[in-house]
Design goal:
The protein is α/β, with parallel strands linked by helices and about 350 residues long. It is built from ten helices and 20 strands. The strands form five sheets. Strands 3, 7, 8, 11, 12, 19 and 20 form a seven-stranded mixed β-sheet that branches. It has a six-stranded parallel β-sheet with strand order 15-14-13-16-17-18, with helices on both faces. Strands 2-1-6 form a three-stranded antiparallel β-sheet, covered by helices on one side.
């Protein structure tokens, strides 16, 4: 089978990979679509994501959907031929965090396409993929597999909203209108936020954010750098801010506009050693600063929302490329003036 493999910085190849037999609790899927994520882009352009550096060839990808091809002897909830959402997280289910219901903090997590452990966890941009049975969620036959592949990033937005607490009637700011920022804004609107302001440095991204029901204003912080100043006051304005850009300057700006007693949720991953947190302001205004890492149980909710149409992810879909053109797709995916989310067609037989 073929797969998209990162061999290091700017070294991406479509390689021939080996398949393997199934264990009793495993499922083999034909991967239909794979969304190119920000972390995939970091591995390609930098050879690393945060503190996780590529030390051996690693198949990329974790935003995927597909069709069940084969099931292990102990798997009964899915059958060959069924369309399925594919959860990239495989927690151990036995550590203290898993037993406490916080599986995203698992101390022995296998997350597709991650260099966070060695040997690396190979990703989902391969024509076939073997997953543990509980990572496979069957969906109706008429499900759009392209939209379904957005379940993982949507789950990140849903988890961020859960980390924020109740949003009904709240005022919300989202910095960064890439895929995660826009999906977080969608999740916030679904949770009842009464005001949602989205910022970015690209008008193209903001034009997509402006289409989201519930987004009340978009701000280009480059062309209109003083716009957020209207929200600065002694008491602050926003009840909750989601930092989804991964930009230190964006994080720093939030402490001026979040109200006393408000909450900042860090969703984007900042470069190591660059997080500027004004501790005195954090303390004096009693701002709560919390992290949101991947998702914890929200993946199934994201699947349900996409299948039911409760959240329409189509505004972020910018186009597809065949697997053989993966390098071209990765180069195009970095052009934020034109693209929000590009997808690879991984296995045409699954479409």
């Amino acid at each position: 089978m073929r797969g998209v493999v990162c061999h290091g910085r700017k070294d991406l190849r479509v390689d021939t990979l080996s398949d393997r037999p199934l264990e009793a609790d495993e499922v083999r899927v034909a991967v239909a679509y794979g969304g190119i994520c920000g972390s995939d882009m970091h591995y390609y352009h930098r050879g690393s994501v945060g503190d996780f550096a590529v030390r051996e060839p690693m198949t990329l990808g974790h935003e995927i959907s597909g069709v069940v091809a084969e099931t292990g002897a102990g798997v009964t909830h899915v059958r060959p031929g069924q369309k399925a959402a594919l959860d990239p997280s495989r927690p151990c289910l036995t550590c203290d965090y898993c037993r406490a219901g916080r599986m995203n903090l698992c101390t022995d997590m296998f997350f597709l396409g991650s260099a966070g452990r060695f040997p690396h966890v190979q990703g989902g941009f391969s024509e076939h993929l073997v997953l543990r049975g509980d990572q496979i969620i069957p969906v109706p036959d008429d499900t759009d597999l392209l939209k379904l592949s957005v379940a993982e990033p949507l789950s990140v937005g849903l988890h961020a909203v859960n980390r924020a607490g109740p949003l009904m009637g709240k005022r919300v700011l989202v910095t960064g209108s890439g895929p995660i920022g826009i999906l977080t804004a969608m999740a916030a609107a679904h949770a009842g936020a009464v005001e949602i302001v989205c910022t970015d440095v690209e008008d193209a991204a903001l034009s997509v954010a402006a289409q989201i029901i519930g987004v009340t204003r978009t701000i280009n912080v480059v062309s209109d750098p003083d716009a957020l100043g209207a929200y600065q006051s002694a008491a602050g304005h926003f009840d909750v801010a989601f930092e989804a850009s991964g930009a230190p300057s964006a994080l720093l700006s939030l402490f001026e506009v979040v109200r006393r007693g408000g909450r900042i949720v860090q969703v984007g991953m900042l470069p190591p050693g660059t997080a500027p947190v004004p501790v005195n302001k954090l303390q004096a205004r009693e701002i709560e600063f919390v992290g949101a890492f991947r998702a914890n149980g929200e993946f199934r909710l994201a699947v349900d929302m996409i299948v039911s149409g409760a959240i329409d992810v189509s505004p972020i879909l910018s186009g597809t490329y065949p697997l053989k053109d993966a390098v071209t797709a990765f180069e195009k995916a970095g052009d934020r003036s034109r693209v929000v989310k590009l997808h690879l067609i991984i296995n045409e037989t699954a479409l």
